[in-house]
Design a protein that fits this description.
alpha+beta, 6-stranded antiparallel beta sheet, 20 strands, 15 helices, globular
Length: 539
């Protein structure tokens, strides 16, 4: 797919009788100012509680609004549909939904819209990838037990108390709970989601500033501005055409040629020329993104007694400083912990937490890998999705560094998987046989979000199935703390367990980058490295 061609419009392949967006950067089917942007097909249908990857998340961020929204400049959680969220003990919360909000089909957004959506998201029978996010709510162990059949239909901790009010009872204290409610899994759902589910999946209905007008898998999705949107963040353009690309280099050259308006994945090979190519239309800004190498702990070879030393040795074999300097030209920074500098020291970021294990030390790497029994199978094969322009380059660079450190030019090779959707599907099915790319883009700006979803036993994004009782216990204690400083200290202790076991290898902190055509104005990336589509103007 490195040599893949741009996908052309496929109007004749549309499954539904919906108007298709125009190709390229011209006006959409409704006319007016429609922008085009690079994109990739989502892994799954766009159910909020079943979407835990970036491409689907971009759409959800345009189509839905929840109780909270993260400020596109600071990342701070601010009330959106929540009129207020009150708590006295960090365990029981009373939520009041703003009056006058509705879905794009005209249905009012009520307390029931949230409670029904959350019950669906948590249900074992409904197989939602983000079910774990509801694990704090009382009764989760009954609707989503670790073993056996579902024993209850609804979360006992959710109770509708009025048309616009409901209560949430948690199974433990979690003072940060309100700040998680801007995550898409907590979005409200209309009745049609439940009564006409298949039709809803074909054309999702939300309560955000855009509606989905059409989608042709493998080609494009057209999102149209919703003129009746009641929120303060109304779209400043007429719509967005998300164009599917299987090669980021092609997307980049299409921007230069005027065939595409926005690309938010600048290929590593283009970084040396991007500032001159785009003449001020290039964005490079810090983001809550960490690139790591994860491991398949369901494979006995990676959870053996000596495997910890092998993982640590591999970390020490990666020359992060050289790779970020020569390949990424300053758009990445060598990682020294498992969070992100965007959190700040007050938010839990602790520079240098990884210590010598993240420092380049070829001799130390060889020693540890030898003591750990050597590379499983004699070779490391790093899996990655091949439809992004940057992954092959950095995986090759990491392998070159490992080969040099170990004195073996076949110690490490890249193992490309065709598309992002295919890559995620193999990960979800536990089909990885060696280290794999595991970039993490924060869901919300809390240290908890960089640790618990990725490393807690059974967590929704714990793709490698790592498990450690010490880590789990420290996270539970941190969540129960009502004092922010004490909670962050406990999370940092939990992060120390991740370090000591080298649960994943932190590589570098990633800036958000984007390039855009001269048709666009007011282009910005939020702290999650996603374009703020509703603020973009065209003309």
């Amino acid at each position: 797919m490195r040599a893949g061609l741009r996908v052309a419009c496929a109007a004749g392949l549309a499954a539904a009788a919906l108007p298709l967006a125009a190709c390229g950067s011209g006006p959409g089917p409704a006319g007016g100012s429609v922008l085009s942007a690079s994109w990739g097909d989502p892994q799954s249908p766009l159910e909020p509680a079943d979407t835990n990857e970036v491409q689907g998340g971009k759409v959800l961020d345009m189509v839905f609004r929840g109780l909270k929204r993260y400020d596109p400049r600071t990342g701070k959680a601010e009330n959106m549909l929540a009129e207020r969220i009150a708590a006295s003990d960090a365990r029981t919360y009373t939520v009041t939904v703003k009056d006058g909000w509705r879905f794009s089909d005209g249905e009012p957004v009520t307390a029931r819209s949230f409670v029904d959506a959350w019950n669906y998201g948590a249900s074992l029978r409904d197989h939602q990838k983000n079910a774990y996010f509801f694990g704090y709510i009382e009764g989760y162990d009954q609707v989503h037990p670790d073993t056996g059949a579902q024993r209850a239909d609804t979360l006992s901790g959710l109770r509708v108390t009025g048309p616009r009010t409901f209560t949430v009872r948690l199974n433990q204290k979690f003072s940060g709970f309100p700040d998680t409610l801007g995550y898409a899994a907590f979005a409200p759902l209309p009745r049609t989601f439940f009564t006409h589910h298949r039709a809803w999946l074909d054309k999702p209905v939300g309560d955000g500033p855009y509606t989905i007008a059409s989608y042709t898998q493998g080609a494009q999705m057209y999102l149209k501005k919703w003129d009746g949107y009641p929120g303060p963040d109304k779209a400043r353009n007429d719509g967005v055409t998300l164009m599917v690309y299987t090669d980021a280099d092609t997307a980049y050259t299409d921007v230069l040629a005027g065939n595409l308006d926005l690309v938010d994945d600048i290929p590593a090979g283009q970084l040396k020329n991007v500032r001159s190519d785009l003449a001020g239309r290039y964005i490079d800004t810090p983001a809550g993104i960490l690139q790591t190498l994860a491991f398949p702990y369901y494979d006995p070879a990676w959870r053996s007694a000596g495997a910890r030393k092998v993982r640590t040795g591999l970390s020490m074999a990666v020359d992060r400083a050289q790779i970020t300097r020569t390949l990424f030209r300053g758009t990445r920074t060598p990682a020294t912990d498992w969070t992100s500098p965007v959190l700040g020291a007050d938010g839990g970021y602790r520079a240098g937490l990884c210590g010598h294990a993240c420092a380049w030390d070829p001799a130390g790497a060889r020693k540890l890998i030898r003591e750990g029994g050597g590379l499983p199978g004699g070779q490391v094969r790093i899996a990655y999705n091949a439809d992004s322009g940057s992954h092959k380059e950095w995986v090759d660079a990491v392998c070159h560094s490992i080969d040099n450190a170990l004195g073996d030019d076949r110690a490490c090779v890249g193992s490309p998987v065709g598309t992002f959707a295919d890559f995620r599907d193999q990960i979800s099915r536990s089909r990885m046989t060696g280290p794999f790319r595991a970039g993490w883009q924060m869901d919300y700006p809390l240290i908890q979000n960089f640790l618990q979803p990725l490393y807690y036993t059974g967590a929704s994004s714990n793709d490698g199935r790592w498990s450690d009782q010490r880590f789990d216990r420290l996270v539970d204690q941190a969540n129960a703390e009502t004092g922010r400083r004490r909670a962050i200290g406990l999370f940092q202790q939990a992060e120390g367990v991740v370090r000591d076991e080298m649960a994943a290898i932190p590589l570098w902190y990633q800036n958000g980058s984007a390039g855009y055509s001269d048709r666009l104005h007011h282009v910005a990336l939020n702290p999650f490295s996603v374009p703020v589509y509703d603020e973009i103007t065209v003309g």
